[in-house]
Amino acid sequence: MKKKRPVNLDLSTIRFPLTAIASILHRISGIIIFLSIGALLWLLDLSLSSPKGFLQASLMMDNCIFKFFIWSMFSILSYHISSGIRHMMMDFDILGVTLQTGKFSAQISFLIASLLAILSGVLIW
Ligand code: HEM
């Protein structure tokens, strides 16, 4: 007998809810922060090694690509922290765990992260 099961392999028809996107981005941002810690520590070490090293680090900070990297790191960290605080507030039942509060708090964490990203952009450029 032929089985007639519903099959949905068209990935473009699958939509993630905002809460799922917020959660996935939080995990991805954590991994990116972890991977970039080495580069940031190297830069800190260079700037503290000697006056010449400090000058080298300062010159690097004038480079547009490097500025973009630092801005990206600030923005990603901003998102991880704002979303992390949201997670902890949900864990401690401060925000409540309904779908509505989940969606609203995800929007607020995106908003806070965006504002911090703009602020860090202004400070870096
Ligand atoms: C060096 C800085 C940090 C790194 C490398 C980092 C890395 C990560 C990674 C990789 C995860 C995902 C773990 C998983 O889903 O299995 C995670 C989760 C988490 N992070 Fe961070 N994190 C950092 C800073 C922070 C800060 C400052 C906060 C505070 C707001 C925070 C709050 C959280 C929370 C609450 C979770 C768990 C989220 C959940 O329950 O799904 N993290 N972090």
From TrEMBL:
<comment type="function">
    <text>Membrane-anchoring subunit of succinate dehydrogenase (SDH).</text>
</comment>
<keyword id="KW-0479">Metal-binding</keyword>
<protein>
    <recommendedName>
        <fullName>Succinate dehydrogenase cytochrome b556 subunit</fullName>
    </recommendedName>
</protein>
<keyword id="KW-0472">Membrane</keyword>
<dbReference type="GO" id="GO:0046872">
    <property type="term" value="F:metal ion binding"/>
</dbReference>
<comment type="similarity">
    <text>Belongs to the cytochrome b560 family.</text>
</comment>
<dbReference type="InterPro" id="IPR014314">
    <property type="entry name" value="Succ_DH_cytb556"/>
</dbReference>
<feature type="binding site" description="axial binding residue">
    <location>
        <position position="80"/>
    </location>
    <ligand>
        <name>heme</name>
    </ligand>
</feature>
<dbReference type="InterPro" id="IPR034804">
    <property type="entry name" value="SQR/QFR_C/D"/>
</dbReference>
<keyword id="KW-0349">Heme</keyword>
<dbReference type="GO" id="GO:0005886">
    <property type="term" value="C:plasma membrane"/>
</dbReference>
<dbReference type="InterPro" id="IPR018495">
    <property type="entry name" value="Succ_DH_cyt_bsu_CS"/>
</dbReference>
<keyword id="KW-0408">Iron</keyword>
<keyword id="KW-1133">Transmembrane helix</keyword>
<feature type="transmembrane region" description="Helical">
    <location>
        <begin position="20"/>
        <end position="44"/>
    </location>
</feature>
<feature type="transmembrane region" description="Helical">
    <location>
        <begin position="105"/>
        <end position="124"/>
    </location>
</feature>
<keyword id="KW-0812">Transmembrane</keyword>
<dbReference type="InterPro" id="IPR000701">
    <property type="entry name" value="SuccDH_FuR_B_TM-su"/>
</dbReference>
<dbReference type="GO" id="GO:0009055">
    <property type="term" value="F:electron transfer activity"/>
</dbReference>
<comment type="subunit">
    <text>Part of an enzyme complex containing four subunits: a flavoprotein, an iron-sulfur protein, plus two membrane-anchoring proteins, SdhC and SdhD. The complex can form homotrimers.</text>
</comment>
<feature type="transmembrane region" description="Helical">
    <location>
        <begin position="65"/>
        <end position="85"/>
    </location>
</feature>
<dbReference type="GO" id="GO:0006099">
    <property type="term" value="P:tricarboxylic acid cycle"/>
</dbReference>
<dbReference type="Pfam" id="PF01127">
    <property type="entry name" value="Sdh_cyt"/>
</dbReference>
